[in-house]
Design a protein that fits this description.
The strands form two sheets. Strands 3-4-5-6-7 form a five-stranded antiparallel β-sheet, with helices on both faces. A two-stranded antiparallel ribbon has the order 1-2. It contains five helices and seven strands. It is an alpha+beta fold. It folds into two domains: 51 residues, no CATH class; 148 residues, DD-peptidase/beta-lactamase superfamily (Beta-lactamase).
Length: 233
């Protein structure tokens, strides 16, 4: 945080939105306010109460044989090209095999399908959640002023995607998807992890692929489409 503080802003706050280290800064704010390390705070407030026993910033030796390998496509620019290669050096050599002195608010957790489902279930409005209904509604509401939308460096603008508090918020559907997709909240991860919640319909889904930068691959969109179709939408 000391290194980030003196750096110039890319733009004046409120004039644009771009993917950044904002969540990492927020993680440090949590540490300062709580007086705990970020991992300890998450374990006590979220992982423990939800029974997420396999979610942490590292995998202890007793669980190491369950750590899945990460793969990368033979051509990142063409995800349909057949072939996968092991990527044992990503996101960095020895990842998740030992504790690090700093825990990131923007990434670095390792988890399981069961734990991921528990977390998503706790965020579906109306279920037994850790958060108040008003808090969930605020999280799942667009926080950007029109016409701002989700923006990634070197990626086309996503005019139908706005941003809530920690996830994207769809304000419109896409071709091939039902109208009920509008209002959905979602995000993706470096290892091809994709999750979404539709608070209006009370449904959610998670896809774990262990494919480096796989969240934007065609199969992710097909999974999304077929999930809605299977649920009758």
């Amino acid at each position: 945080m000391k290194a980030l503080a003196p750096l110039p802003l890319s733009f004046h706050p409120g004039t644009q939105w771009e993917y950044s280290v904002a969540s990492d800064v927020l993680g440090r704010v949590v540490e300062v306010v709580s007086g705990e390390s970020f991992g300890t705070f998450l374990a006590g407030r979220i992982f423990g109460p939800l029974g997420m026993n396999d979610t942490d910033f590292w995998v202890p030796p007793v669980k190491r044989d369950r750590l899945c390998a990460l793969y990368v496509g033979v051509d990142l620019l063409d995800p349909t090209k057949p072939g996968l290669l092991r990527a044992d050096d990503k996101p960095y050599p020895g990842a998740y095999t030992h504790k690090l002195p700093r825990e990131s608010g923007g990434g670095g957790l390792v988890s399981t399908l069961d734990d991921s489902v528990r977390l998503l279930q706790s965020l579906i409005p109306g279920d037994a959640t850790l958060l108040r209904a008003a808090t969930l509604e605020l999280m799942f509401s667009n926080q950007l002023h029109a016409p701002l939308c989700v923006r990634f460096p070197n990626v086309p603008l996503q005019p139908g995607w706005r941003f809530g508090l920690g996830s994207s918020v769809r304000v419109s559907s896409d071709p091939g998807l039902p109208e009920e997709v509008a209002g959905e909240v979602s995000w993706g991860g470096l290892a091809g992890t994709i999750w979404w919640i539709n608070p209006r319909l009370g449904i959610a889904a998670v896809l774990l692929t262990q494919r480096y930068f796989g969240f934007g691959n065609p199969y992710a969109y097909e999974f999304h489409r077929q999930a809605y179709e299977a649920l009758g939408h």
